[in-house]
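Re: your question about TIGR04219 family outer membrane beta-barrel protein

S., sorry for the slow reply, the queue was backed up all week. Below is exactly what I fed in.
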Amino acid sequence: MKKTLIAASLISLMSATAQADVVGLYIGGQIWDNEATGAFGETANMQEFRLDDEQQTSFHIAVEHPFPFIPNIKLAQTTLDTTGSATLTEEFKFGDETFTVGSSVDADFDVSYTDYTLYYELFDNGAFSFDFGLTGRDFDSEIVATSTVTTTDSSGGSVTETLTGKQSASEIVPMLYAATEIGLMFTGLNLYAEGNFLSIDDHTLYDYQVGISYDLIDNIAVDVNVTAGYRSVKLELEDLSDLYTDIEFDGVFAGLVIHF
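Result:
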């Protein structure tokens, strides 16, 4: 609820501010077809899972202005959902549950995060731009591991039981933000790259994308750009609310950005 209220407040502020002629409002989204690989656990001794490929979505909204000492604002939301399985070769403890050797364990991996970014446009001459800033990545994740086991009771009958281990994590992690764009003259095409990065203490995170955009509509009232490219996310977390992960998502995406 708190995150929803913060996001709603920022969007309202952006929408109101964007009414001024000197302010630009950007709204965008993308569909991302990615592959997932990795491991997770509640200690540094993580279990590797075979994770399924999925299509993910994300969106962003940003406000840029000409005032030099006030940062621009960007709000982005990304959801990463996938499922997986593993046959254990050693005991696996997760979410106050213990899974024994030989068990077949299924996993539901649900990680969403909201990025609150403050950034400055350090250079922009119309053909080349470079932005730099700071992001607070607000994680809201839940991973569930389940296994169905059959045992024999005292009367010789079989008993089926489902074991469930669950870990949730909610924490804000600071990251560096950078973005650049190069316009290809007289083509309507632009090359761009954007990313958030962190490698400090117990966490190694990155989330970057490189791609190309095309000016589908370009006039004084509104610009509409279609985008396509490659995106990669790495989540190497150590003890984020008792959750450990070493998971990567990468693949191609297609999207749309509207600029008022």
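DSSP finds one helix and 13 strands in the chain. The chain has one domain: 2-259.

Happy to talk it through on Thursday.
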